[in-house]
Hints:
The complex is a heterodimer of chains A (334) and B (173).
Chain A: E1 2-3, H1 7-15, H2 21-28, H3 32-37, E2 40-44, E3 50-53, E4 56-61, E5 64-66, H4 77-87, H5 96-100, E6 103-106, E7 110-121, E8 124-137, E9 142-143, E10 154-155, E11 160-161, E12 164-168, H6 174-187, E13 199-203, E14 224-228, H7 232-243, E15 247-250, H8 256-267, E16 271-277, H9 281-286, H10 288-295, E17 301-306, E18 313-319, E19 325-328, H11 329-333
Parallel strand pairs in A: 12-16, 12-17, 13-14, 13-15, 15-16
Antiparallel strand pairs in A: 1-9, 2-3, 2-8, 3-4, 4-5, 6-7, 7-8, 10-11, 17-18, 18-19
Helix pairs in contact in A: 7-8
Chain B: H1 2-50, H2 54-64, H3 69-81, H4 88-103, H5 107-117, H6 125-172
Helix pairs in contact in B: 1-2, 1-6, 2-3, 3-4, 4-5, 5-6
Amino acid sequence: MKRVHNPGNIIKKQICQFLAPRVRSIIESLPQDLLSKTEEIRLRHSRPLIIYWAGGESYLGKRGPVASVKEAYMVSGEDLERTLELISSYSLYACEEEMRGGYLTIPGGHRVGLGGRFVVESGSIKTLRNVSSLNFRVARQIKGAGEKVLPFLIDRHVGRIYHTLVISPPLGGKTTLLRDLARLISNGVGILGQGGQKVGIVDERSEIAGCYQGVPQLDVGIRTDVLDACPKAEGIMIMLRSLSPQVIITDEIGREEDIRALEDAVHVGVSVIASAHGSTLEEICRRPVLGLMLENNYFERLVFLSNSRGPGTLEMIVEGERGLPLYSARSIRE
Amino acid sequence: MYLKMSGAALIILAAYLFGLNLSLMYYNRVRLLEELLMALEMFLTEVNYGLTPLPQAFLSIAKKINRPVGSLFFDAARLMQQNRGLSACECWRAALRKNTRELDMPQKNMDLLDRLGSIWGRGDKSGQQRQIVLIQELLRQALGEAQVEHQKNNKICKYLGLLGGMTLVIFLL
């Protein structure tokens, strides 16, 4: 597996320009090795500036990492306001829809989570005011993340992709795997025994393709169409009607309408690759709608990921109908 | 005699041109305010129908509006696109400073333009629209005043220039 760029450079080149000048200068002065592993940059009103990486965090002072909160740089309201202006390209009016979802996407596919006071009108979120925290999540594409999994997802006789459900706990690498599967299936790899297939991604939370103004910022393949920020159920129907995909990829399914749309896709012969939060098959089976889908054997392959040896650890691949394990990391480790 | 006559003609012409220039100043104020109103109308269209980000909306306006109003929007957009971490207000005010001389407006109107700086990109769509409409209203009032001033002073300036030149010639002769 290879990472696309040096992640430290990604932060300096793609993220720093959206930070308020004082925060920017702090982040820019960090050593390269620290930037390379940084996964999140957290700005919270009147609280210390913190960066997070897998399994750790660091307070940041004006001259770099510091040991205590007292020495850390306290993020001001002005820093937050300026940063929000920069990430919204000076246009909060153009980002209302995304803000209602609690995030904004910036060029490079990085997502900025927003916290603050939500204004609710007639029971639904109208807008977000008084932003009090910002969380920059560094989008990292790991090319090759799906190479190990893909051979188990192909019906080699007809070159068809099996209906697949990727299951993992949060931060388990579901989205990274889906993104790489999209890239591999779309571009075509030798293992498919043919050219690529047309892939449709319904990316409700702009996570898979990391679209900025509708354009994918991450490599999702040359035959891939993306419906960005589109509700899953409607997006799947739009895909089926107008973009004739051979494979539909979407993440975090679970609502009844999502499942109904996926059923439609399955019935018209389009392969579906989806993901769901969970750790074990039992846990998924307990969820009303997903459980029903598994009971009815909609999915032909179940892929389990975990964090046991870092995000994206492939634990198991199971044949959907009979529950036969096709791959098990435990048996390999033993 | 011939020399005196041509000198006198030159003095009258120069004085007339001075008066004309003064009257053009009043006309330019009217034109600039009209163009500013037009630019704000374009901005509202970009916000309403395209949700166009501010820098792109400014560039689009700059392409359609003459200098110096067009330059004002162009310079602000360029500053925003330079990723220097400046706020919209800082970009606008810097562009305003750069174009102050060419804009040549009374302080009251310049204050209005300055006020625009703290409005750009702030708030949601309806909030942005409301703020722009309010500024448009104030600009319309300023335009009305500028038109009255122009009508009042246009002929006066020209005639005063001409008559002033003639008076000077009479004195000199």
